[in-house]
Amino acid sequence: MAERMVHIPLGRKTVPWTPPRDIVIPRSRGNRPPAGTPEDALAAPFGSPRLSSLASGAGHIAIVLPDATRLWQDVPRMARALRMEIGDGTPAAVTWIIGAGLHRAPTEEEKNLLLGGASRPGETVIWADPARAADTGMVTSRGTPVTVAPEALGADLLVLAGGIVYHDLAGFSGGRKGLLPGISGRVSVQNNHGLSLRGGMEGLEVNVGRLSGNATAEDMEEYGRLLEKGRTIFLLNVVPDETGKPHCYTAGSLDEAWSRGVEMARALQTLHIPGKAALVVVSSGGYPYDIDLYQATKAVTASLGALKPGGGLILCAGLEDGLGPGNFASDLPLALCDPGALLRRLEADFTIPGFIALKVPHDMKGHPAALVTEKEGTPFPGETFTSFDAAMEWILPRVPPGPAVYVRSGNCIVLRADSE
After folding, report:
1. Which residue of 163, 199, 296, 335 has the lowest C-beta tally within 10 Å?
2. pLDDT tens, residue by residue, 342-398
3. Does residue 44 have a pLDDT over 70?
């Protein structure tokens, strides 16, 4: 369909674009799950009794919440729904765990924000520090030791909150990712995520939406089943729509509830276009989805599979916090000038930011690309512009003839061409 003017999210503002050719707006297809609330999901769990029933017979309950980098999930709403379902009068001891994986420790302000008033006096709120994870003695068949926060091991009912979207390594997020990397030790995270390099960069098994044959995802699944020994695990996950806003929820057992949520995510977040695109103009969706380049690269991954050979991409991202967390800021320039050196380092000491820094330029080979951002001089596997019009002028002579596709919120979707 043709539209003559669009307003592209860029940070905390939008930029106008009058397309020089007709544009295609991708659409979701199939049976769209109805909108719902966390309370709806908790009232009708998949593969499990209601959480209220499980809590009434528990001695110690641990509730795992995502950290502040996942506020798009509206974590406080899930925390309050879990509290209401468990009830204020439960005799069980309740511990709230912020499962940040290998991210930094949350501040007290962030803890209060995430809980949204759901904790009660006398209840413990802790961060799952990966340096103090307890070793269970169990190991997955792929060699990942099961090491988790001791407060989780001491619980006979473990509740996981999270969100389900397409994910570069795990295929989909949510579910067992609340355990690994959520509350696991560094050695567990490093081994599991390092499985993604098992086939080298030319034979990667990991990709958005890929579960079967994905060693990282299959290892996470086995890890979760090992942790279910001796305790009950209950899940509450939000499933956002194609704009990244919460749409519906899934609750119940770790396996069945997450699988149902993945079905919902595929229906909501898979966007279709008639055929391969000559050019994709993709925004991360504005702030906070484009708070840094590390987050914004999700929109690149989401779109590349729908490009023609030689097709181009313009990424629009404000990048208020620059390149991103950890070693991504140093590893991306290294990936652009010496990818072999970064690969060798990751094989010895795997990190997700380093892997993304290596994977995105690798996947973009053969595709002219431009980054439109408020941060001048940002390294990128293409050209960087502060003017959208200048980026468009640069890229149009470099792409083949054919339709241009506009994706308003690329961080929570995957773009599919019907001609694939």
Report:
1. 199
2. 999 998 888 888 999 999 999 999 999 999 999 989 999 999 999 999 999 999 999
3. yes
Task: Report the chain's mean pLDDT, rounded to a whole number.
Answer: 93
DSSP 27: B
Cis, peptide link before residue 181, omega less than 30° from 0:
yes
> Pick from 183, 106, 110: which is nearest to 147 by CA?
183
CA-based angle 141:344:140, to the nearest 5? 10
Report DSSP state, residue 78.
H
Distance separating alpha carbons of residues 51 and 145, to the nearest angstrom = 29
Delimit the CATH 3.90.226.30 region(s) of the chain.
Answer: 6-28+274-417
The dihedrals phi and psi of 419, each to the nearest 5 degrees, come to -80, -5
Indicate the fold that domain 38-268 takes in CATH. Rossmann fold (3.40.50)
Beta strands in 304-407 (DSSP E): 307-316, 369-372, 383-385, 404-407
Beta carbons of 303 and 415 less than 8 angstroms apart: yes
Buried b / exposed e over 324-363, threshold 16 CB at 10 Å, is: bbbbbbebbebbbeebeebbebbeeebbbbbbbbbbbbeb
Whose CA is closest to 393, among 17, 3, 97?
Answer: 17
Bridge partners (DSSP) of residue 184 are 148
Q: In which residue are the tokens 């001491």 written?
A: 154
How long a stretch of residues is the chain? 420
DSSP 28-79: --S-PPPP--HHHHHHS-BSS--HHHHHHT-SEEEEEEE-GGGGGG-HHHHH
Q: Do residues 69 and 103 make contact, with C-beta atoms less than 8 angstroms apart?
A: yes
Q: pTM value?
A: 0.91
pLDDT at 21: 65
Q: Are strands 166-167 and 157-163 parallel, antiparallel or unpaired?
A: unpaired
- With CA atoms as reference, report the closest residue to 161 among 70, 227, 244: 70
Burial letters for 194-215: b for 16+ Cβ neighbours within 10 Å, e otherwise?
A: bbbbeeeeeebbbbbbbeeebb
pLDDT tens-place string over residues 142-186: 999 999 999 999 999 999 999 999 998 899 999 999 999 999 999
Which of 2.60.40.3080, 3.40.50.10840, 3.90.226.30, 3.90.25.10 would CATH assign to domain 6-28+274-417? 3.90.226.30
H or E element, residue 232: strand 232-240
Token pair in block for residue 116: 């949204």
SS3 291: coil
Task: Give residue 2's pLDDT.
Answer: 45
DSSP string over 369-381:
EEEE-SSTT---S
